């Protein structure tokens, strides 16, 4: 009998799945807009608000409006812009800004370190709280401008006294908010950490500090604003350089445009400092980012 022919199965043909086409530019733009819709809306409203403010300012100063408040001597936005274009080419104006920023950096950094650490210790140990809190509450209501004569007597140079006043201005908001954050820590979390064998250092690092971070950064933000207020007051009274001294000198020389320029520079610097703190807070606390 002839041998049976071997049956060969047909080789399967691979099915080629079509690769998806890359999204078009319009689709990517629409997706980006949906993800950033809230921030874009806030930015647009902010730009419109600033433009409206400048328009009202221009109209009030152009027509010399007198309605309870006198705008007869207030410089116009164009005059302030002309002063700005002149000032940015003046090394002395840039020196004023740099010195103010340096004073803020040293004074606020020292206040943040001391205020946060002292607030954590006071919130954890009752005896320390009972010793330090009454003294802090007596000193806290004293305005920064009242400290200027005492700071001049305490420190050998004006630079050190100004940094000291800046430190005092930002220290108390940081301390109070840190204490408030420590008081709101859930005791159940502390007892759970103790039951798991955590030591005091670990409880501080893993329980108290993370739970207090939102209030700590609130205190840092408030403290930065008060630090600028304290710095400007100190520079106007006892300083020889700084944006506060620049503004006061412009008033003494009846240079109205420079007065407005100094005020705007203070506002912009304060806003930038607060934005830096908020950005640091979002990096440290990503779970609170919206």
Automatic annotation (TrEMBL):
The chain crosses the membrane at residues 40-59, 104-125, 131-155, 162-180, 216-238, 259-277. Gene3D superfamilies: MetI-like (1.10.3720.10). Signal peptide: none annotated. Residues 97-277 form the ABC transmembrane type-1 domain. It holds the Pfam family BPD_transp_1. PANTHER family: ABC TRANSPORTER PERMEASE PROTEIN MJ0413-RELATED, ALKANE SULFONATE ABC TRANSPORTER-RELATED, MEMBRANE SUBUNIT. This is ABC transporter permease. It comes from Bradyrhizobium iriomotense. The lineage of its organism: Bacteria, Pseudomonadati, Pseudomonadota, Alphaproteobacteria, Hyphomicrobiales.
